[in-house]
């Protein structure tokens, strides 16, 4: 992961460019998680990309970023 602490902090503060950088960093993971398996009536499986799943994941990440809190020990 190539995300810098400063970028995350800026995204939490509402910086649009920083938010885009975070979303771009997580895009491959969200795309992978958006692949669903469909089965036809004969039981054959097909992997397809779900745009709906991708958009839900992206929206959820955008909602959670402002809630980020740093854990201090």
In short:
This is Helix-turn-helix conjugative transposon-like domain-containing protein. It holds the Pfam family HTH_16. By secondary structure, this protein is α+β, with helices and mostly antiparallel strands.
Description of the structure:
This protein has 73 residues and is an alpha+beta fold. It has a domain at 27-66. The chain is built from three helices and two strands, in the order H-H-E-E-H. The protein has helices spanning 5-12, 16-33, 51-64, and strands spanning 35-39, 45-49. The chain has a two-stranded antiparallel sheet with strand order 1-2. Helix 1 (5-12) packs across helix 2 (16-33). The two termini are 23 Å apart.
User: Major sheet, described briefly?
Assistant: 2 strands, antiparallel
Which whole number gives the mean pLDDT?
92
Strand order of the largest sheet: 1-2
Detail the poorly predicted runs. Answer: none
Class from helix and strand fractions: alpha+beta
How many E strands? 2
Backbone shape = elongated
**Share of residues in strands:** 5-15%
Helix residue percentage: 40-55%
Gyration radius, rounded:
16 Å
Please work out how many helical segments DSSP would assign.
Answer: 3
